[in-house]
Every structure is written in C-alpha cells, then in structure tokens.
Specification:
The chain is built from 21 helices and 18 strands. The chain is of the alpha/beta class. It binds ligand C2E and calcium ion (CA) (2 copies). The site of ligand C2E has 22 residues, from strand 11, helix 11, helix 12 and strand 15.
Length: 557
C-alpha cells in the first residue's frame, strides 16, 4: 500500500466518522424533540428510528474496519463508544430504561468489530507470509520497507541470491528443495537475531533488513558463509548433503531514498554486479556501479542493433615470420562504429556480448565476413596466408559448433587449411566435453588451433598435451616486460621451448619495440604480431600487404 492510497483511506474513514457522529446527533437532539412523526394518516414515534440510525452507523463502522483494520477499527470503536456513552448516560441520568437495548447493541457491535478486525489481520498475515520459510514474503517486504522509508530509517537492505537451487530441485525434487530453503532461512534468522528482519522475495532470493545500529556488512558476510556451509536434508530413509553458494547486493542507509522502487532497483544493480563478478561475494551499491551498469545496457543495445545496421566491420592485424619479416597471415579483429561516428572498443562490447548469447552472433558474423573477404585474396595470390579468427569460449562449448563451422567454410568456399581458430586459455579452463570434442573435430579437418593469451594462467600442461594445438600466442602482458624482467624472459624462453617440444609454433603478440623483437628472435620465437611491424589495418591495406609479400617471394626466387 503506498502513501497516496493510505491517505485516501484515512480520509474516507474520517468522513465515515463524521457521518456516524451526525447519526448520533440526529438521534440525540432531533428525534427527541420531534416526539411523534406524522406521515399522512400514520403517526410514528421518532425515537423508534434510533435503532435504524444505530444500524446504519454500525454498517458504516464495519466499512471502516474493512478499509483499515487498525486505524479504521480505532475510529469505529470511538464512534460506537460515543453511542454507548449516550445510551448509558440516558439510563443513569434520566432513569430511562428505553436506551438499554441500544446499550447492549453497542457492546455486541464492539465485539463484532473486534472479531472482524482480528480475522482481517490474520488473513493479511497469511497473505504476507511465505509458506515454505514462514518469513515475510515479497509483499511483506514492500509493506515493511515502505514504513521504514516513511520513518526515515537509516538501516540497510540486502538481497541474497542462492545459486544451485535449480539443480537441487531437478536432482532431488521440489520437496527437498523447499527443505533447503527452510534450512537456509533458519540459519539466516539465527545470525541476524534482533538486528533486523528476513524476507523471502521468491525463488532463490531472500532479502534482509538490518538496522542502522547493527554491523550490517559483518552480518551479511556471516550470513553468506553460513549459507555456503554443508546443508543436511533429511528424507524418509536417508540424509542428503547439499551445497549452495550465495551472493548479495546491498543498499546502505535507506533514508536516502523516497521510493521503494528506487531501493529495489539499486539493490538489484548491486546484486547483479556481484553475480557477474568472479571474485565478489557481495557488492554495496554506489554511483560508479550504476554508471557502469547503464553503460553496459547502452553497449548491449548497440550490439543488438549492430549486425542489422552495419555498425560492425573487420580489420586485420598482420602476423610476420620473425626471422625475415615475411607475411604469415592476419588476425581478424572486429570494430564497431556508431552512426554518429564514435567507436566502441572491442574490449568493451565483447565483454558485454560474452555475458549473453550476443557473442555467438558476433562470432558467426566475423567468421563469415573474414572468410568471404579473404577467399578472393587467397585465390588471387595462390598462397596460403593464415587467417586467424577469434572464437569465444561460449561458442566453442556448444555441441555441434565444429559441424556448423565446416558448413560455413563449405558455403563460402574457403580453403580450410588457411584457417586458424583462436581460442583463449579460458575456453580450455571450462573443460567441457563439448569444447574438447569441437577442438578435435576442427583439427581433424585440417584447420589450425591457436591458444590465445597464453601465459595468463588458465591452461594446465596436461590439458594442453591432450589437445591438437598448432600455435601458442604469448600474451602481450608477458612480452611487455621481456627486456626489463629476467624471470619474465626466462618464462617466455621456457614457453617457446615447451611449445616446440609439443610440435607447436609460437607467436608473440603485442610486440611494440625493436628491443623486444631482438630478444624474441634470440629466444627462437617463430612469429610476431604487434605495433612494432604493423597495427591492425583495413581490408584494402591487407590486400596490398599480401601483394607486396608475393613480390618479395618472387624476388627471392
Ligand atoms: P586479442 O584477441 O588478444 O587481440 C589482440 C588485441 O591486442 C587487439 O586489440 C589488438 O589490436 C591489440 N594489439 C595488437 N598488437 C598490439 C600492440 O603492439 N600493442 C597494443 N597496445 N595492442 C596491440 P583489440 O582489437 O582491441 O581486441 C581486443 C580483444 O577483443 C581481443 O583480444 C579479443 O579478445 C577481442 N576480440 C577482438 N575481435 C574479436 C572477434 O572478432 N571475436 C571475438 N570473439 N573477440 C574479439
Ligand atoms: Ca586473439
Ligand atoms: Ca590475445
């Protein structure tokens, strides 16, 4: 119930009180003076209408209680109390027992109103209570927090999201899933004790209100830790152990807000931020997070429109043989240009697209476009320059990706042996069966596999040995320090040595300086990609470069 509707209800109740008072006045001062009412040939003692007026007042009082079982009940009791007082006064002062039935009616009315108000309260309580956990539900949360806002409370709101409930419901059934939720609610209640309230918002989401005096962050940390401990669920014959994880979004000092909707939105933003993070267990809302969320939404909108509106195009960064600067091939890199001429960097929109399935659209677009553009070049020069295309971890983990890739290659008519798929170390960390199967199928079809960002820490050696990898791409972060850090240089040397042992070739990316180039040459690195020899270039320039390289080749012959 929001403030406006609560004010309207109060106004209606006050009008109703006024009507009841008018009834009492009419009965006390008008009817007693009229004595007998003449209606044509009929006469009627006016006092006999008192009962009708009292009945009318009672009906109005019931309406007040139904409208608001707290405020309405108090006001209705006042109205009936006044009637009761008038009737008893007549009995005591006037020694007139004709008001006795009215007095008894008042007592019955009060009892009836108490009963109705109690029933309404109980019904409301049931409506606001979550059946599984016995704590207040989403409506209850909104009811309580609206009151806190109204009272300028400085407390904290946290949303808790449990991960793993869907699997529990599927594997163990909903009854046990409900038992887990119940167990979780008991743990949380035990920790928050008198410091606040717990609510279940629905599904795997709980909310906490913690008072401003409590050590809210400490409590939330304890709550998360306790939820993540083993939960034992009893069933008829056995006990099952389940584990769930939990993340939280927090809005502190709710007195800053005027609207409940704003608190909910900001706490959701904070929760979403924590859910998307690999490291954060909880996140406290602040303006920075809001800005980055808004920007992400904006960028997501651009990505959705990009393919249909031609915002995407490709550039190609040349890769060279380190020993003679001959052209090995190109890595295709996507670019986004908006109609107003501004660019959105791939670092930004790829990260946004990877959070949804939009990355799959990007991968397909790049594959098709890069192969279509380069097919003519390869056919014209009769050479096999390698075309490297980045493929996301998500795409690679989809069953049947390899088959779809082969279909695209067939449709475009691209020479398979000139294609290289770049996958990041992170894709291998996912270690799904589908990823491995796709990689094997791609390799069996004569397509090269490169491990991108190598050395950033995900791949295990044993995993690498199992896969048909043909190229290791040493990450720029390692190359950056090669001339200043001996350990770094030794590490790169070991990677090159290991790569060659595995019958892989090795390329260093992000090479910017000649001294880095000299060290890499000395260490036996095969190829180089970086600003030192070429930035990413447009397709026309890439074709020119191929032409120059072919001329060099002919000159050598
Ligand atoms: P990446 O695959 O590691 O690509 C190399 C990035 O390093 C490119 O940035 C490239 O322009 C940049 N680079 C190359 N040489 C140098 C250098 O000498 N110095 C410096 N400072 N930078 C250099 P870009 O194009 O901004 O791409 C960033 C990332 O976006 C890529 O990293 C890749 O993860 C992703 N990406 C780019 N294009 C695609 C694509 O078509 N598909 C997918 N799935 N991801 C893409
Ligand atoms: Ca790459
Ligand atoms: Ca890379």
């Amino acid at each position: 119930m929001n403030n406006a509707s609560s004010r309207t209800k109060k106004l209606i109740i006050i009008i109703a009180v006024f009507m009841c008072l008018c009834n009492s006045m009419v009965s006390a001062f008008v009817f007693s003076r009229i004595g007998i009412l003449k209606l044509g040939n009929y006469s009627l003692p006016a006092s006999s209408l008192n009962g009708t007026l009292q009945g009318l007042s009672f009906t109005i009082c019931i309406g007040m209680v139904i409208l608001d079982y707290n405020f309405g009940f108090i006001m209705a009791s006042v109205c009936i109390g006044i009637s009761f007082f008038g009737a008893t006064r007549a009995i005591i002062m006037g020694k007139d027992m004709t008001s006795l039935p009215g007095t008894l009616n008042c007592i019955l009315y009060i009892l009836t109103l108490v009963f109705i108000s109690r029933q309404l309260k109980l019904r409301k309580k049931i409506e606001l209570t979550d059946k599984i956990t016995n704590v207040l539900n989403r409506d209850g949360f909104e009811f309580v927090v609206r009151r806190k806002i109204h009272a300028s409370d400085r407390g904290v709101i946290a949303f808790l999201h449990l991960r793993g409930m869907t699997d529990i419901n599927i594997n163990l059934g909903r009854v046990r899933g409900d038992a887990v939720l119940h167990a979780v609610s008991l743990r949380i209640k035990k920790i928050i004790a008198d410091s606040g309230d717990l609510f279940r918002l629905g599904g795997p989401e709980f909310a906490l209100y913690l008072s401003s005096e409590s050590k809210s962050i400490e409590i939330i940390e304890k709550v998360i830790a306790s939820i993540e401990e083993k939960i034992e669920i009893e069933s008829e014959n056995d006990t099952v152990n389940v584990y769930i994880s939990c993340k939280a979004g927090i809005s502190d000092n709710i007195s800053k807000y005027k609207e409940l909707g704003e608190i909910i939105k900001n706490t959701d933003i904070a929760l979403n931020h924590a859910l998307k993070s690999d490291v954060l267990k909880y996140c406290v809302f602040n303006e920075e997070i809001k800005k980055s969320t808004d920007r992400n939404h904006e960028v997501e909108g651009f990505v959705k429109e990009a393919i249909d509106n031609n915002y995407f195009y490709l550039v190609y960064q040349p890769q060279f043989y380190i020993k003679n600067k001959r052209l090995r091939g190109f890595e295709s890199l996507i670019r986004m240009k908006l109609p107003d001429g501004t660019f959105v960097s791939p670092g930004e929109f790829i990260a946004v697209a990877e959070k949804s399935d939009l990355i799959l659209k990007i991968d397909s677009f790049v594959l098709r476009r890069a192969m279509e553009e380069f097919k003519t070049v390869l056919l014209e020069y009769g050479e096999c320059y390698t075309l490297s295309v980045n493929i996301s971890a998500k795409e690679l983990a989809i069953p049947g990706f390899a088959n779809r890739l082969l279909e695209i290659i067939e449709k475009v008519g691209f020479p398979k042996g000139c294609l290289e798929i770049e996958i990041t170390e992170y894709s291998l960390a996912i270690d799904s069966e589908n990823t491995v199967e796709n990689i094997k199928k791609i390799s069996e079809n004569d397509i090269k596999i490169a491990i991108d960002d190598f050395g950033t820490g995900y791949t295990s050696l044993s995993q690498l040995l199992k896969l048909p990898v043909s190229l290791l791409k040493i990450d720029k972060s390692l190359v950056d320090n090669i001339c200043v850090d001996g350990a770094n240089r030794d590490f790169i040397s070991a990677v090159i040595y290991m790569g060659h042992l595995m019958e892989c070739e090795v390329i260093s990316e992000g090479v910017e300086q000649n001294n880095q180039l000299s060290v890499l040459k000395e260490l036996g690195c095969d190829f180089v990609q970086g600003y030192v020899w070429s930035k990413p270039i447009d397709f026309t320039s890439a074709v020119e470069l191929c032409k120059e390289d072919v001329c060099k080749e002919r000159a050598v012959r």
